[in-house]
């Protein structure tokens, strides 16, 4: 009897222990997991990605009127010299493992196609190739949205300068440029340079500085173009082409450098 009583007493103590210690512990654990699975997903968590936006900055796409493609520079340069002897503007550009003999570049596909047709009427065959400009992505804090809108507008003005130069270049290939047309180019360039903004984001500041450098060079080129147009010396088209090509190449090369640095 004594042994049974002891066993019963031990069982009762075990039951008390379960009630006092284990059940509250289980309740606490259950409450934790319930709050974790049900309550937490409804709480707005702070996430960096929620505070940032991303914009894509595109380079300049070019429509190249290609007169020939060669495996070595010497052959391409020889063909270039022959074109110049015929009075046809051309230059050699390396593209991957080939050397292209280019007769003109434009930012508009139709301009390039019409120019190619014009060359065909002179007995010069050509094809229009598209050379895509590079693109970079810039992540920015949503607090800088207004600043990035100004930056986007600035890049659009920059692009418009090239678009206008392309249109003038096409016209100069078969017609005389009017003085007011070059005055409009100067106005666009001056407006871009005189519009000064301060940007907080470093990448934006660097890009804008590069565009200003390029536009400064275009300003110097315009002086030569104006003289050529006034004299009607036949060099206006080639001067516009050289300025347009060098400017686009400098900008696209700069963007490629940024891409490589971020890889």
Automatic annotation (TrEMBL):
Superkingdom of the source species: Bacteria
SUPFAM superfamilies with a match to the protein in the record: Sporulation related repeat
Organism: Thermoanaerobacter pseudethanolicus (strain ATCC 33223 / 39E) (Clostridium thermohydrosulfuricum)
Name the UniProt record assigns to this protein: SPOR domain-containing protein
Source lineage: Bacteria, Bacillati, Bacillota, Clostridia, Thermoanaerobacterales
GO molecular function: peptidoglycan binding
Coiled-coil region(s): 175-202
TM region positions: 12-34
Keyword terms, alphabetized: Coiled coil, Membrane, Transmembrane, Transmembrane helix
């Amino acid at each position: 009897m004594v042994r049974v009583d002891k066993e019963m007493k031990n069982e009762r103590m075990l039951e008390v222990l379960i009630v006092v210690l284990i059940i509250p512990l289980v309740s606490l654990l259950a409450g934790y997991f319930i709050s974790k699975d049900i309550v937490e997903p409804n709480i707005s968590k702070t996430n960096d990605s929620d505070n940032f936006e991303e914009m894509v900055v595109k380079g300049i796409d070019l429509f190249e009127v290609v007169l020939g493609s060669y495996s070595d520079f010497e052959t391409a340069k020889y063909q270039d010299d022959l074109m110049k002897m015929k009075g046809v503007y051309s230059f050699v550009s390396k593209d991957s493992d080939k050397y292209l003999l280019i007769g003109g570049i434009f930012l508009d596909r139709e301009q390039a196609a019409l120019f190619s047709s014009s060359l065909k009427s002179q007995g010069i065959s050509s094809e229009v190739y598209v050379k895509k400009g590079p693109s970079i992505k810039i992540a920015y804090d949503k607090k800088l949205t207004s600043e990035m809108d100004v930056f986007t507008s600035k890049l659009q003005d920059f692009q418009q300068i090239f678009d206008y130069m392309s249109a003038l270049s096409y016209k100069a290939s078969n017609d005389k440029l009017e003085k007011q047309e070059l005055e409009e180019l100067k106005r666009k360039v001056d407006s871009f340079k005189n519009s000064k903004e301060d940007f907080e984001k470093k990448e934006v500041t660097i890009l804008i500085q590069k565009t200003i450098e390029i536009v400064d060079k275009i300003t110097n080129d315009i002086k030569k173009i104006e003289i050529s147009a006034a004299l009607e010396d036949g060099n206006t088209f080639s001067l516009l082409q050289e300025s347009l090509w060098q400017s686009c190449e400098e900008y696209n090369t700069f963007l490629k450098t940024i891409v490589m640095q971020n890889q």
